Amino acid sequence: MSKPTPSSRLPTLASFQPFNYHLSTFQPSTSLTMITDDQLYQLAIFLGSVSMLLIVLYHFLEVNAENDDKTPLSAERKADTVPGARPVRS
User: Which portions of the sequence form the region Disordered (predicted)?
Assistant: First the structure.
């Protein structure tokens, strides 16, 4: 019994079979249908309404949030809060 040589264990070009798979033979297991115009309209209305509610909720929470910083504002920071105001000179 002879030992196989490394070249005899390797596949040859003659034994190579190309992958024979065509997309035309693919059959999905379930029937896929496209979304209708009415479903798309309802989805757009729903997502738009939810996004507007989330925006309003975010602004409500942001406006009513308590300030954790209890230190009084400096004169320069007070001037930044009022449009057109200048820093107070001491």
Answer: 69-90
**What's the one-letter identity of residue 64?**
N
**How open is the CA angle 37-55-48, to the nearest 5 degrees?**
5
Strand stretches in 1-90, DSSP E: none
What is d(CA 49, CA 43) in angstroms, rounded to the nearest whole number? 10
**pLDDT at residue number 55:** 97
Question: Looking at per-residue confidence, does 83 or 60 come out higher?
Answer: 60
In this structure, what token pair is assigned to residue 90? 């001491």
Domain count, the chain: 1
Inside any domain, residue 75 = no
Q: What pLDDT, on a 0 to 100 scale, did the predictor assign at position 31?
A: 75
**Neighbouring residues of 78: CB distance < 8 A, sequence distance ≥ 6:** 85, 88
Token pair 């939810």 is at which residue?
50
